[in-house]
TrEMBL record:
Keyword Hydrolase applies: no
Any one GO CC term of the record: ribonuclease MRP complex
Taxonomy, superkingdom: Eukaryota
GO MF entry, a single one: ribonuclease P RNA binding
SUPFAM superfamilies: Rnp2-like
Name by which UniProt lists this protein: Ribonuclease p/mrp protein subunit pop5
InterPro entries: Pop5/Rpp14/Rnp2-like (IPR002759), Rnp2-like_sf (IPR038085)
């Protein structure tokens, strides 16, 4: 007895509106792939390439699916998935991430891809948080710098005012002293 050889494709569905479709099920994806095969390869392709086609796994939250097909039809099914632009009236792009001869290998790749995407998302969030903290620090530094400049200006103004007051006071004292000296001189002259 001959064993039927199959291939498994790990496919990522990238929605144009970057959302998640929780109503998505395997029947909707199967019908979309079938329509794509029929559009690109006609009735003959539809009859030939749907031979072993099946949706084995679907995760609407992670937008991942595992599709089984006959090994001899791999290229045609792959191209039909790649040309798929719409699933259930929503625009999307389908990207084949991995192909293998066993579903276990596809599952491992799906787990690895999910972990990597989670890590990337976490890194992006940390990067954004770090940027926000840096912006807040820069804003605080700018505020502190402006406050320091204002304080320095106020101190300089106060010093200038104090100097002016001291100069004015010194001038007044000098004038009074000069007047006193003049009076003393006048008195001395009058006495002589």
């Amino acid at each position: 007895m001959v064993r039927i050889k199959q291939r498994y494709l790990l496919v990522e569905i990238i929605w144009k509106d970057a959302g998640v479709d929780k109503k998505l099920n395997s029947q909707i994806i199967f019908n979309s792939i079938r329509q794509s095969i029929q559009y690109h390869f006609g009735e003959f392709g539809n009859a030939k390439y749907l031979e072993r086609l099946a949706i084995k796994y679907l995760s609407p939250l992670k937008n991942l699916t595992i599709i089984r097909c006959a090994r001899k039809n791999l290229r045609e099914v792959w191209s039909s998935i790649t040309f798929l632009r719409q699933i259930n009236t929503r625009e999307c792009i389908c990207r084949v991430l991995h192909t293998s001869g066993t579903i276990l290998s596809c599952q491992k790749q799906a787990i690895k891809y999910s972990e990597d995407s989670l890590l990337i998302t976490t890194m992006k969030l940390l990067f954004i948080q770090n940027q926000n903290q840096n912006q807040n620090q820069n804003q605080n530094q700018n505020k502190n710098q402006i406050e320091n400049e204002n304080q320095n200006e106020n101190q300089n103004e106060n010093q200038n005012q104090n100097q002016n007051q001291n100069q004015n006071q010194n001038q007044i004292e000098n004038q009074i002293e000069n007047q006193n000296q003049n009076q003393n001189q006048n008195q001395n002259q009058n006495q002589n």
